[in-house]
């Protein structure tokens, strides 16, 4: 039984790291810009579609395809922030929800017009095929790759936020926007770069899913719910919280499917409810 | 010159139409009263999933119906009236499906309704049909309850189902009957009614032949499951000999591709992908089938397969469909095509479009359809016809993988028959 639990835990770990890629950008935008971006899932979907087009359709190198999809979604993110999101920073939360929810509908319909409504299935890059033997059972190389990708993104984010000038500016403006502006930080430019960075993180999630997932309208919406649960559990706006939240959700989901298949679906919502009852601001929220 | 309907044009118009309707521009549609002019076209309203991972099913439904309507119109229509089609996105949401039915029947003025992919949507629509009093030909929704409970039980005569329900999914029991090496069976099933019923029916069926088999694990995947790793890992931990799986369309493709990463096909004797004979699923895993990644262990069925039966009707349909749409028809295309022809046959026999008269005309009738002879059972308005099970394989005769090594079990053997006893629709 212990072996089963460890193996399932490792599967949950890869799910956690995948969810973390999406939750990281969502919580970063909320923490710095103060915007609850419902359309974050749409940027994830666009990243998947772009990778599918570059890799699956045009036959470009997998890594180059990911890079190009990050750049493409980064450009879309820039337009979104400069022309739309920027106008609602000072408005109440409902305006943010209406605007970003509107973008979900627009992006879903746009991808239907451009790519059609039918699910696309990109090929799997050869280096991700196969498995390694862990506890005598085959563990997919793809899942190992996702764990590394998630840890690498977490490390990169820590490095950027803690060790770079840009990171210090982000932390300064997150804790006191007016004071940061007073000491000469260009807040509008900083917000654009943070939003674009988060958009690219979402796109990375979408791109890294393409080897095993289908690409279809609405895939972002299906993911964003889990990402919200993660950020609520961890504390909205807190990156460390999002990481821990992703670990909790991913691993509990995997254990739920193994141990409590009949009511697995509601386990993470029960956890979220308990966290909200005990610590409404989330595990790492302030 | 008439603009040719392509999939993209169709989706574009649907999207634009949907956006316009959402913005309150619905009143630009046909106004009240116009629809019932006797000299006007016979209006046929359909709906199916035309967005998301299951979008090909709705598209196929629309494509099959369009083909039938074009053929019928070219020969003068039904009762000398041409047919007109409007097809909407069901979104796999019961509330949307009910809204569509009300709109199509009362506002647009549909004379007949067809379509619907989701069982949940079908069960929501059923009770509304007596109110709008239109015959509805269901082309995909597979829950047995639609015909067993709503027609045979509650007497909702407006419901007709042209497609074989979830009885088909249990067909693997007849294959496992002769595979004594399979003793431990696990399920990876949809976490909604279709998955529950398919699994329960299968368990009930196999126990009749093989009381020795054990059901060692069951994992449940809701709509929009993208990562099946946890499900595959959980059931493989119990070392099953065979796996019974119901996720369909894009989800079925993801499940099968992800199962290869876990080396599942090195360890089992048989994987039953219930709707594995679906064209979109076979296309989705064509690279893997060509590479023999499933080692001949992947079996499935569908609610129609284009390579069965070998008959003039089926050949004519498949050829016409390929010529019109450039691809092979899936089962929802065949069932919608046959639904439109059922409307024609029923209306011409009744010499009327009236709901009661056409319904009575169709009861007990046997129709010649591409899928073979279809008997419209009087008690539950369920079409009875045979679809075989087969092994997923590449054939030199087809550009896409097919189900081959076909096992034909007569429909009367694997269909349920009235009076019906309840099947659990729970996990």
Helix fraction of chain A by DSSP (H/I, runs of at least 4) = over 70%
CATH level-two architecture of chain A: Orthogonal Bundle
User: In angstroms, what separates the terminal alpha carbons of chain B?
Assistant: 54 Å
Q: What's the structural domain tally of chain A?
A: 1
Brief characterization of the structure:
Chain A is 72% helix and 3% strand.
Structure description:
The complex is a heterodimer of chains A (286) and B (427). Chain A has 286 residues and is mainly alpha-helical. Chain A has a single domain, classed as Orthogonal Bundle (ABC transporter involved in vitamin B12 uptake, BtuC), CATH 1.10.3470. Helices cover 72% and strands 3% of the residues of chain A. Chain A has eleven helices and two strands, in the order H-H-H-H-E-E-H-H-H-H-H-H-H. Chain A has helices at 2-33, 40-57, 62-83, 93-115, 141-163, 165-175, 177-182, 187-209, 219-234, 239-259, 267-278, and strands at residues 131-134, 137-140. In chain A, a hairpin with a 2-residue loop joins strand 1 (131-134) and strand 2 (137-140). The radius of gyration of chain A is 19 Å and the shape is globular. The relative contact order of chain A is 0.20. Chain B is α/β, with parallel strands linked by helices. Chain B is built from 16 helices and 15 strands. In chain B, helix 3 crosses helix 4 (119-125) and helix 14 crosses helix 15 (355-362). Chain B has helices at 7-22, 55-74, 94-108, 119-125, 129-132, 145-153, 172-176, 193-209, 229-236, 249-261, 279-284, 286-290, 312-325, 331-350, 355-362, 411-414, and strands spanning 42-48, 83-89, 112-115, 135-138, 159-161, 184-190, 214-221, 242-245, 270-273, 298-300, 366-369, 372-376, 383-384, 389-393, 402-407. Chain B is globular. The termini of chain B are far apart. At the A-B interface, helix 1, helix 4, strand 2, helix 5 and helix 9 of A face helix 1, helix 2, strand 7, helix 9 and helix 10 of B.
